[in-house]
Amino acid sequence: LYNVSRVEVLKGANALIFGRGGGGGVVNRVSKTAQVADSFGEFDASVDTFGAFALLADVNQPLTDTVGLRLNATYEEFDSNRDYFEGRFIGISPTLGVEIGPDTRLDLSYTYDDDRRTTDRGVPSFNGGPLLGYYDTFFGQPGFNTNSIEAHIARARLTHRVTDAINFNAAVQYANYDKAYANILPRGTDGTTVSLGGYADATQRENLIGQANLVAEFDTGPIGHTLLVGIEGGRQDTQNSRDNVAFTGGDTAPLAQTIFVPAFTLSPSRSRDSDLTTFSAYVQDQVAIGEYLELIAGLRFDRFDLVTVDIVSGANGSRVDEQISPRVGVIVKPIETLSLYGAYSESFLPQAGDQFLLLSPGDAAFEPEQFTNYELGAKWALSPRLLAAAALFRLERDNTTAPDPANTGLTVQTGASRTEGFEISLTGEVTPFWEASLGYTYLDGEITETTDAAVAGTRLQQLPEHQITAWNRFNLSDRLGIGAGIIYQGEQFASFSGNVTLPDYVRVDAAVFYDVSDRLSVQVNVENLFDEQYYPSAHGDNNIQPGRPFSARVGVRLSL
């Protein structure tokens, strides 16, 4: 996040805005841009109790009255309680902002990210839950279990105010990625020995994406309109290969605090080349009818033309998918501070997934996965700086896939599913000295169509019934603040098999903030204050990720 100004969490199907993949929600990162009028610098340094540290710099300098240059950079080293885990991250991101005229701005940016770290697939399951007593144990091969990615990303964005009511923007991005991933991973244990598997995967990718939008505000009689019209096109070329681990002896090792992985070799499993071309066009109108009613309606058309070749077998898996994603909503404002809304939206994800690799032509199982989202909610501004919200929702998915509980790295067809629930939240300034972010979520989800993989009525994986988050900051003075919060997550199945349950847990966090001066501040964050052993997530029944134990991070920030 070193070059990100803010993070937006958007819940519900968002295909109209983001295209494929926004089925249940998206996390949108908004990048920092250069300022042409301000000169500033900010430097951060932090270190935690495991020895992990981070150095960050954010410097902005106007070059002329109309040109500004900003540089964000970071160097981080990783460490944790997990044996053999280590890594480092280097990020450099210069941006240039040019005010071409009073109504036109050009932003240019380049990002170089280099991430290298240990691949840690967690612990296996035993007796229906995570294997206990091995919270720090690394079930892999040091030196082989590695993950690296090197990315070069260049962007250009032009914004232009045509009139006071019409705005135009256009953006283009070129990116080049080189990723390598290798791991030995646990496949199960009988309490005495652990069975192992593994693979090595490499991906090279190059993409070019362009987008243009026109936003116009106008009235037709007493009705106000905010109209969005846009197009997007892209080209993506990907080469992917995988080698499977073949153990020269058995694939089991004695279960101990240090796992000695048997000797193994690598054998080629696949080699793929894919070429994806996309085109999208979309339109949305937000209609204001008086002071109390707004209507929103939009459509997005997407075409995905994928040409793939399995280099090993020569098989062609080409496919063309065309989808229309609608979105409609209504907002009622009985008073200025209260909004009641209802929304319906659709999204989809081609079965090649977000990686777009290999498909089998003509197979009905490879029809795109469909998402349909229904939502009713309310947002109430209790004060200018305090917002309460509630939402009741249902997400239906068709032609779904899920990780195979018995074969890590593989997926199976699970037919269709439904997730429904509600959430409530309170965010903002409760009192002049108390800031809070409080939330509760209830989730119920099940497979609704019987397939070879699962029967209808099976509860979905990774779906805790109850979740509670609470973070509070109390400003004791103009310079001193303290923070405290909890995270509760109910028990959940590691996979849809229902054979392995991740226990519920409560994690308590705390923080202290102190401004030494107007330019220098110090912060201490404590995660997992009471050293709870917990397992927040899993990938199948035998790749269960332990949570982070007690750790404290001390940070210093200098502003110039």
How would you characterize this protein structure?
The protein is built from one helix and 31 strands. It has 560 residues and is an all-beta fold. The protein has a 22-stranded antiparallel barrel. A two-stranded antiparallel ribbon has the order 1-2. The longest helix is centred in the first third of the chain and has 4 residues. The radius of gyration is 25 Å and the shape is globular. It starts with a strand and ends with a strand. The mean pLDDT is 92.
Which labels suit this protein?
1 helix, 560 residues, 1% helix, two-stranded antiparallel sheet, mainly beta, single chain, 22-stranded antiparallel beta barrel
Coarse morphology: globular
**What is the percent of helical residues?**
under 10%
Low-confidence stretches: none
Number of strands: 31
- Radius of gyration over C-alpha positions, nearest whole angstrom: 25 Å
The major β-sheet equals: 22 strands, antiparallel, barrel
CA distance, first residue to last residue: 21 Å
- The helix tally amounts to 1
What structural class do the secondary elements suggest? mainly beta
Strand content: over 45%
**Mean pLDDT over all positions:** 92
Fold blueprint:
Elements: E1 4-11, H1 15-18, E2 25-31, E3 40-48, E4 53-62, E5 67-78, E6 87-101, E7 104-118, E8 125-126, E9 129-130, E10 146-163, E11 166-189, E12 193-220, E13 223-247, E14 252-254, E15 264-289, E16 293-310, E17 319-335, E18 338-349, E19 369-383, E20 386-403, E21 411-431, E22 434-447, E23 466-475, E24 480-489, E25 492-493, E26 501-502, E27 505-515, E28 520-527, E29 537-538, E30 544-545, E31 551-559
